[in-house]
Amino acid sequence: MLVQDHEKEKNPEKFMEKVFKDISGALTKQCAQLVID
Question: Do 35 and 29 form a contact (C-beta atoms < 8 A)?
Answer without folding.
Answer: no
